[in-house]
């Protein structure tokens, strides 16, 4: 579903991504680990066509994101590290707008409320303007927006960084549910625990190179941490 | 898709306090501009009517006086209007008037500095009123608060205020990433954003000004309809230019503050500086002869004429004495002889001064010509020019009026010259048959020929900024690095 082929990105001489090859199949949750600046966000931005690759291809459902930006964006949803919404609109209004853009203008208010509830937004919040929301609440609206889009691939850039452990756990469960529905998920994260918990595979990136790629079932929590630290120290 | 973006943008605008402050103020300014333009139009209409009435009244009274004299009523020598030289030179006059055009309420324009009526009698026209200098229509429009002032100056400011951050605010507010992760291009978002803002701001400008002008009694049948149509198009094009510029500036993905500065700077240059510079260029390229030179040339001409004057030319001063000594017939004959001598002399004096005045006119025409060619540097000048033309208050329209007055003045002289030289006195019927001035409005085709290039250029500007803006948007960076 998501495939990087010899994907390179050069920012004015700084090679942020040095020929990434990666494939994420439907139902997989791939967790990208790595220090800041290791190329995780660059990878996600290339799939989103937010930046253009220097060479190589980022494919979504077999389509090159650079060549077919609109078609590929129909297939994927994105949750950034900090979800920012239209502060003068309510959660329902924000969700309705983004769903409409994604081609789901058929949702009723009840549908929209159900998505927000499923994302864990407290019952009193949906009709309040999001200007007063905490980061965690905004993040949940972001999740609802992504889920409501009903996509084949999900890109997440450190989505749990602002969530409390309970919300983070609920979020993981949601991801697992989505993967069971056949969604391919690529999540950049610093949370080794979360990666081991919900990920089917983990990749470790360093200086734009994927230095480790393994199935989570093959490794324990402690081993994953040890492996990660080993790569970081090399 | 674009409808959804428009609905969303409209909702955001409604939730933003700026709209609730800006829109009523804007509506008020537009309404006040229309009100002022209409008041000015009424003022002109009243003035024109009063001027015509003064001339009518004067000629009527002079004819009545001649009738009384013909009936044998006693009269003073200086009151006799029947002497052609005296009648045509001093006693009678015509008020050549330019009534306000059908849509004059939309732009006061040059009607602020050019008189809408000119007094015509024997004296050379250049001694009367046409030594005014060229002024830029944009500068002059500031003088009075009319609709074109609101549209040329304030309307772009409101457009800038509501659109300078249409993309940068999404970027700075962090909503851009979610927005651009949807299957919608940046261009589509911009179209939606611009359309909503355009419908509000341009829509209000067009609707309010057209309603206002129609309420002020524009005569639609009399060439008013196409003028209002072209006026609407000019408002749309001029507003479109500022929106297009805002799209272009936003496409560079700078900060909101940078966008605001760039747009305000452009406003300053195009709306305030360009007209002033253009004016200065025209004035320094084709300087007008000094007013003192003009006055001196006229004075030298008359002095020369006076020195050559035969004694009979002075006889008018002794008319009473002549009348008492030789009776009425002698006096009339003497006075006529005096005018017969004086008038050709005066005309020679004028001819001596004429080259200087001709040079003045030529230089002024060159200034106009230069401004007319250089007006294409700024959409603001183009818009002001088009609006002035449509309101019939442009420099060109006043020049056309001035030519008509000049032709009428020549007719006045031709009409009376033979009578003065031949000597017979005028009868009351002759006085009533004095040729009168009839203002002929310019043909619609003539005005349209001046409007079309400006309007076309304005539309060209719109296309250029939008094409550049949307071209630049193709490389719009979604993620900062």
Walk me through the topology:
The complex is a heterodimer of chains A (234) and B (481).
Chain A lengths: L1 E10 L2 E11 L4 E6 L5 H8 L7 E6 L2 E2 L4 H7 E4 L11 H11 L7 H10 L16 H14 L4 E5 L7 H16 L3 E5 L3 H7 L2 E6 L2 E7 L5 H13 L1
Parallel strand pairs in A: 3-8, 3-9, 6-7, 7-8
Antiparallel strand pairs in A: 1-2, 1-4, 4-5, 9-10
Helix pairs in contact in A: 3-4, 3-5, 4-5
Chain B lengths: L1 H14 L1 H54 L13 H8 L2 E4 L19 E4 L16 H7 L3 H17 L4 H6 L2 H5 L5 H30 L4 H32 L4 H30 L5 H17 L11 H56 L4 H13 L3 H28 L5 H5 L11 H30 L8
Antiparallel strand pairs in B: 1-2
Would you kindly provide a written description of the structure presented here, covering whatever features stand out?
The complex is a heterodimer of chains A (234) and B (481). Chain A has helices at 40-47, 69-75, 91-101, 109-118, 135-148, 165-180, 192-198, 221-233, and strands at residues 2-11, 14-24, 29-34, 55-60, 63-64, 76-79, 153-157, 184-188, 201-206, 209-215. The radius of gyration of chain A is 17 Å and the shape is globular. The longest helix of chain A is centred in the C-terminal third of the chain and has 16 residues, at 165-180. By secondary structure, chain A is α/β, with parallel strands linked by helices. Chain A has eight helices and ten strands. Chain B has 481 residues and is an all-alpha fold. Chain B has one domain. In chain B, helix 2 runs parallel beside helix 8 (186-215) and helix 5 (147-163) runs antiparallel to helix 10. The longest helix of chain B is centred in the last third of the chain and has 56 residues, at 319-374. Chain B is elongated and about 105 Å long. The two termini of chain B are 29 Å apart. The relative contact order of chain B is 0.15. The chains are: A alpha/beta (234), B mainly alpha (481). The A-B interface holds A 11, 45, 48-51, 69-71, 73-74, 76-78, 80, 82-89, 93, 97-98, 100-103, 105, 142, 145, 155 and B 1, 4-5, 8, 11-12, 15-16, 173-175, 177-185, 477-479, 481.
């Amino acid at each position: 579903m998501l495939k990087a082929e010899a994907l390179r990105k050069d920012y004015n001489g700084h090679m942020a991504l040095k020929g990434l090859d990666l494939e994420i199949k439907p139902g997989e949750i791939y967790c990208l680990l790595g220090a800041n600046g290791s190329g995780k966000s660059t990878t996600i931005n290339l799939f989103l066509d937010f930046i253009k690759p220097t060479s190589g291809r980022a494919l979504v459902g077999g389509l090159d994101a650079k060549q077919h930006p609109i078609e590929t964006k129909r297939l994927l949803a994105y949750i950034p590290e900090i979800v920012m919404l239209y502060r003068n609109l309510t959660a329902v209004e924000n969700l309705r707008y983004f769903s409409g853009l994604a081609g789901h203008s058929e949702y009723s208010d009840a549908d929209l409320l159900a998505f927000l509830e499923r994302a864990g937004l407290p019952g009193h919040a949906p009709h309040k303007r999001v200007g007063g929301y905490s980061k965690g609440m905004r993040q949940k609206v972001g999740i609802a927006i992504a889920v409501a889009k009903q996509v084949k691939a999900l890109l997440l850039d450190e989505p749990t960084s602002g969530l409390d452990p309970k919300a983070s756990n609920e979020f993981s469960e949601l991801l697992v549910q989505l993967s069971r529905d056949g969604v391919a998920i690529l999540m950049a994260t610093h949370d080794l625990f979360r990666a081991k918990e919900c990920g089917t595979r983990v990749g470790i990136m360093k200086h734009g190179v994927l230095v480790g790629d393994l199935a989570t079932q093959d490794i324990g929590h402690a081993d994953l941490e040890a492996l990660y630290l080993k790569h970081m120290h090399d | 898709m674009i409808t959804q973006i428009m609905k969303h943008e409209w909702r955001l605008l409604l939730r933003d306090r700026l709209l609730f402050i800006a829109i009523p103020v804007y509506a008020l300014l537009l309404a006040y501009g229309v009100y002022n333009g209409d008041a000015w139009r009424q003022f002109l209409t009243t003035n024109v009517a009063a001027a015509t009435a003064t001339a009518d009244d004067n000629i009527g009274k002079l004819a009545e006086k001649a009738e009384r004299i013909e009936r044998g009523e006693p009269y003073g020598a200086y009151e006799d209007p029947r002497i052609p030289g005296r009648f045509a030179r001093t006693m009678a006059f015509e008020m050549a008037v330019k009534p306000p055009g059908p849509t004059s309420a939309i732009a006061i324009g040059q009607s602020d500095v050019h008189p809408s009526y000119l007094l015509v009698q024997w004296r050379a026209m250049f001694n009367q009123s046409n030594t005014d200098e060229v002024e830029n229509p944009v500068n002059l429009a500031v003088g009075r608060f009319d609709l074109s002032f609101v549209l040329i100056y304030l309307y772009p400011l409101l457009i800038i205020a509501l659109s300078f951050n249409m993309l940068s605010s999404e970027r700075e507010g962090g909503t851009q990433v979610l927005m651009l992760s949807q299957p919608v291009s940046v261009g589509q978002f911009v179209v939606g954003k611009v359309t909503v803002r355009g419908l509000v701001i341009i829509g209000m400008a067009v609707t309010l000004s057209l309603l206002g002008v129609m309420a002020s009694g524009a005569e639609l049948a009399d060439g008013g309809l196409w003028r209002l149509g072209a006026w609407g198009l000019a408002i749309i094009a001029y507003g479109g230019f500022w929106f297009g510029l805002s799209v272009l500036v936003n496409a560079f993905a700078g900060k909101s503050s940078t966008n605001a500065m760039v747009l305000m700077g452009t406003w300053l240059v195009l709306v305030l500086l360009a007209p002033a510079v253009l004016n200065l260029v025209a004035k320094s390229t084709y300087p007008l002869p000094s007013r003192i030179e003009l006055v001196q040339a006229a004075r030298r001409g008359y002095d020369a004429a006076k020195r050559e004057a035969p004694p009979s030319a002075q006889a008018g001063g002794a008319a009473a004495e002549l009348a008492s000594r030789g009776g009425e017939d002698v006096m009339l004959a003497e006075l006529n002889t005096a005018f017969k001598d004086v008038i050709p002399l005066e005309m020679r004096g004028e001819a001596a001064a004429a080259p200087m005045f001709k040079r003045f006119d030529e230089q002024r025409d060159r200034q106009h010509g230069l401004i007319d060619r250089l007006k294409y540097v700024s959409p603001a000048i183009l818009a002001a020019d088009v609006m002035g033309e449509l309101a019939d208050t442009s420099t060109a329209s006043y020049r056309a009026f001035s030519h008509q007055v000049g032709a009428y003045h020549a007719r006045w002289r031709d009409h009376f010259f033979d009578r003065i030289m031949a000597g017979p006195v005028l009868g009351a019927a002759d006085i009533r048959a004095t040729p009168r001035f009839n203002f002929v409005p310019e043909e619609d085709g003539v005005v349209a020929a001046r409007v079309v290039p400006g309007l076309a250029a304005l539309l060209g500007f719109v296309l250029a900024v939008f094409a550049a803006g949307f071209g630049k948007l193709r490389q719009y960076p979604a993620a900062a690095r």
